[in-house]
Each structure stands twice: as C-alpha cells, then as structure tokens.
C-alpha cells in the first residue's frame, strides 16, 4: 500500500508508548473486576423476615459467588499474564497496540459472560459462551506475544527462556479449559464449572509440582 510520507511517519509513531498501553490495561482490568460484584445483589426479603430467612437467601447466592470468584481469578490470571508480556517489551508499535486493545475487548466481555453463567448455571449455552470468552482472552494474548516476537519488540535477552514458557502456559491452560468445558456433554454443567474453577485455582496458587509449576 502506498502511503504519503506524513501518513507513514504517523503510523511509525502511533502506539509506541508502552506506559500508556499498561495504563489503559490496568484501568480496564480494574473496572472489569469491579463490575463483577454487581452480579451479587443484596437479597430482597419480605417484611418480618428472620435471620434464618436471610441465611437461606444468602445460600441461594452460592452459585453467583462461585462464578464471581471464578471470573475474578480469570481476570487476575490474565492481568498477570499480560503484565508479564508488557514487561518483556523493549518497544511497541501501532499493530501491537491494536492487538492489545483486542485483548482488552475480551476483558470487557467478562462481566457479561459472568452474569450470563451466574443467571443460567445449568444451561450449556451459557457455559460455552463463558468458555469462548476465555478462548478469546487466550487467543488475543497469544497473538500479541507472537507478533511481538516476529516484529522484534521484545527484549532479546529474555526471548530464549521466557517466550517459550509463556506460549506453553497459554496453550496448556486453554487445553485444560476446553477439556473442562467439554465434560458438560456427559455431565451436568456444575462439573465443568468446578473443573474450570480448579484449573484457575492451580494457576493462582502455582503449586510447586514440577510439571505444573513449570508452566
């Protein structure tokens, strides 16, 4: 494509500020994590209700609390993953910035996916939509890493050791999420939700089991 010198120069300068990229990322993650709690509505009780009624109402919030916690861990895991990737950057460019914005788009969808699954936890469609949101998060994060490697945006000294581990971490996690979601074909959706929760918990606590800790 033929570009005028001015337009070519603009594209060379656009999206090069890594600090601004990190800033908008932190802001969107913070808003997304905060919006999750809106799914935990205070129970409405009839006049004259007792503490026992309140306990029962709170217990009925259990599925919402589980999905809320699961989604908070999801965003936390991807916030750490993206932050690790940004820390490896020697510089940025316009294309990389737009790939990160696509990643942040998937972050903004998490509160909706969470609300849908919390409202319809027994529906396979709600579960699959939630899983597809996780897939979009993983795909866009991996796309940013691959483009950064190809465009030589990462610190050369870190590439041999860290980049393969980051790639493997994303691919293995996505495989585990897919397997967990696929169990809804044979079992109730709660089995899949529990497995997804356990996968996330593994990445949060990073147990010092050689194979798991490596990724």
Provide key terms for this protein.
215 residues, 0% strand, single chain, mainly alpha, 76% helix, elongated
Describe this structure in words.
The chain has one domain. It has helices at 5-13, 18-36, 51-60, 62-87, 94-119, 124-150, 159-182, 189-205, 210-214. The chain is mainly alpha-helical and 215 residues long. It is elongated and about 70 Å long. The model is unreliable at 209-215 (pLDDT under 50).
Provide a short characterization of the protein structure.
The protein is mainly alpha-helical. The protein has 9 helices and no strands. The chain has one domain (5-214).
Topology:
Layout: H1 5-13, H2 18-36, H3 51-60, H4 62-87, H5 94-119, H6 124-150, H7 159-182, H8 189-205, H9 210-214
Percentage of β-strand residues: under 5%
Sketch the major β-sheet.
none
**What is the percent of helical residues?**
over 70%
Mean model confidence by pLDDT:
84
């Amino acid at each position: 494509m033929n570009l005028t010198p001015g337009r070519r120069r603009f594209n060379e300068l656009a999206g090069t500020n890594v600090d601004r990229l990190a800033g908008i990322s932190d802001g969107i993650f913070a808003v997304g994590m905060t919006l999750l709690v809106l799914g935990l509505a205070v129970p409405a009780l009839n006049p004259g209700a007792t503490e026992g009624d309140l306990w029962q109402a709170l217990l009925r919030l259990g599925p919402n609390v589980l999905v809320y916690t699961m989604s908070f861990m999801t965003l936390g895991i991807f916030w750490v993953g993206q932050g690790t990737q940004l820390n490896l950057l020697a510089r940025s460019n316009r294309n990389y910035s737009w790939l990160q914005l696509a990643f942040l788009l998937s972050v903004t969808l998490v509160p909706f996916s969470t609300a849908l699954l919390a409202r319809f936890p027994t529906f396979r469609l709600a579960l699959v939509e939630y899983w597809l949101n996780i897939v979009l998060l993983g795909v866009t994060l991996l796309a940013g890493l691959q483009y950064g490697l190809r465009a030589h945006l990462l610190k050369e000294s870190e590439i041999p050791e860290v980049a393969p581990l980051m790639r493997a971490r994303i691919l293995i996690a996505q495989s585990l999420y897919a397997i967990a979601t696929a169990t809804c074909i044979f079992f109730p959706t709660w089995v899949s939700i529990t497995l997804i929760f356990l996968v996330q918990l593994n990445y949060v606590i990073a147990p010092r089991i050689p194979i798991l800790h490596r990724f």
